[in-house]
Amino acid sequence: MPDPSRRAVVTGIGVVAPNGIGTADWWQATLAGQTGIGPIARFDASGYPVRLAGEVKGFEAEDWIERRLIVQTDHWTHMALAA
Questions:
Q1: Per 3-state DSSP, what percentage of the chain is helix, strand, and coil (rounded to 5)?
Q2: Domain interval for residue 68
Q3: pTM for the model
Q4: For residue range 11-49, what is the model confidence (pLDDT) as tens digits?
């Protein structure tokens, strides 16, 4: 049986997704049926059997997190921190 004294608190929500950055943009795109799936543009995918992906276009880490964290972390961590 779960211990009722152990609780989790959600203090906010953030989204960095292929179909929107920020909860409002993401929700609007989701309601409109936009997936964000499209041709891979971040790198040359010609050597791979897959040509489609859910890339997050327009994401600039500098708009969301401090420079000191940007140089210490990778692209995926940037998006997680921004969310």
A1: 30, 10, 60
A2: 16-82
A3: 0.74
A4: 888 999 999 999 999 999 999 999 999 999 999 999 999
